[in-house]
Design brief:
By secondary structure, this protein is α+β, with helices and mostly antiparallel strands. It has 2 domains: 3-154, Beta-Lactamase, CATH 3.30.450.20; 171-335, Reverse transcriptase/Diguanylate cyclase domain (Alpha-Beta Plaits), CATH 3.30.70. The protein has helices at 3-25, 28-42, 65-70, 80-85, 89-104, 150-170, 181-198, 212-219, 221-238, 262-279, 309-325; strands at residues 48-53, 58-62, 109-116, 122-133, 139-148, 202-209, 244-249, 252-258, 294-301, 331-335. The strands form 2 sheets. A 5-stranded antiparallel beta sheet has the order 2-1-5-4-3, sandwiched between helices. It comes from Paraburkholderia sediminicola. Its EC number is 2.7.7.65. Residues 109-161 form the PAC domain. Residues 200-336 form the GGDEF domain.
Length: 338
């Protein structure tokens, strides 16, 4: 709430409390003059004041600004049922339960919700509620102020959308568009924990483009980047829904296959290898048909509480180097789930 709204709230609360106190004291002349001043000042603000009698749950007062904002005449706000009925269905139960509980406890509170206009649209409101007690300490009435926070909510939603977009970008490799090392770490931790809980197999595949340094030296880094993008696309199209593809670094890619045994993982690797071959990306400096190939390391495990995810990654990485040492364009795998 900004400073103007706070001043309006304080002024309005003073008016509504003073209105009741003056009536009880019977100082009619004072009430007529002073309350009129308060009412004029209050109703010239953007804050919408209201007062509810706790015993009857009826509106004792609601500012005329309500009709300008929502289109409903002040006279149509008779009980709290009118307030609740004009609330978005997705907000109603939560907000009503919260406000009732806080009011019963005698606690001042705030609530944000979408209010229905007479035209069938919704406007974001913030209700700031003060609980008024009688001499015995019992709840006597509620004094509140409605504030139009639609613009604030729009700004918050834009900021939230930008944050989600930035978070998504922070998990993507800027060149290839697949997951980056940060996302790989997060996905691996999540799937490792899930595999431990359910006693399910988890497979990991690491792929490294063969002779990529000579590719860059011959074709240049721009073409090298294009090659990495194409390989990322091929791998993404070769995996199944729910599998993860990421760039581990340089010309190395990594795949996480949840709930996947060794044989199924082997089939995924073979499909990746076949599709890279079918892409026929020219590589004049490669001894394999002068096209781009890749070496693969694969591993499968049913992780126990004593197993370590980093150690498993290192194990698969070792398999990758076995594949490269054995002539490249091949697969080396280990099965720790057997």
């Amino acid at each position: 709430m900004n400073s103007t709204d706070k001043k309006s709230a304080v002024l309005g609360a003073e008016f509504l409390r003073h209105d009741t106190a003056a009536a009880e004291s019977g100082v009619e002349d004072y009430l007529e003059h002073d309350a009129a001043v308060y009412r004029t000042l209050l109703e010239s603000t953007r804050a919408i004041p209201w007062k509810i009698d706790w015993a009857t749950m009826e509106f004792a007062y609601i500012g005329p600004q309500i009709e300008t904002l929502l289109g409903w005449a002040p006279s149509s706000w008779k009980t709290v049922q009118d307030w609740a009925a004009r609330m978005h269905p997705d907000d109603r139960d939560k907000v009503v339960e919260f406000c009732v509980a806080q009011s019963k406890a005698g606690t001042d509170h705030e609530a944000d919700y979408r209010a229905l206009t007479s035209g069938g649209e919704y406007v974001w409101l913030r209700d700031v509620v003060h609980v008024v007690r009688d001499a015995r300490g019992e709840v006597e009435s509620l004094v509140g102020f409605m504030f139009d926070i639609s613009e604030r909510k729009k700004t918050e939603e834009k900021v939230a959308a930008l944050q989600r977009e930035l978070e998504a970008l922070s998990f993507k490799d800027g060149l290839t568009g697949v997951g980056n090392r940060r996302e790989f770490d997060a996905v691996l931790q999540r799937e490792w924990s899930a595999a431990q809980r359910h006693g399910a197999p988890l497979s990991l595949i690491m792929a490294d483009i063969d002779f990529f340094k000579s590719y860059n030296d011959y074709y240049g880094h721009v073409q090298g980047d294009a090659c990495l993008k194409q390989i990322a696309t091929v791998l993404s199209e070769a995996v199944r829904p729910g599998d993860f593809v990421g760039r581990f670094g340089g010309e190395e890619f990594v795949l996480i296959l949840p709930n996947t045994g060794a044989e199924a993982a082997r089939q995924v690797v073979e499909r990746c290898r076949d599709r890279i071959s079918a892409a026929e990306i020219a590589h004049e400096r490669s001894p394999f048909r002068q096209t781009v190939t890749a070496s693969f390391g694969a591993g499968t495990v049913i992780p126990s509480a004593s197993d370590d995810a980093v150690a498993f990654v290192n194990l698969v990485d070792t398999q990758l180097y076995h594949a490269k040492d054995n002539g490249r364009d091949c697969i080396s795998a280990v099965n720790r789930a057997a």
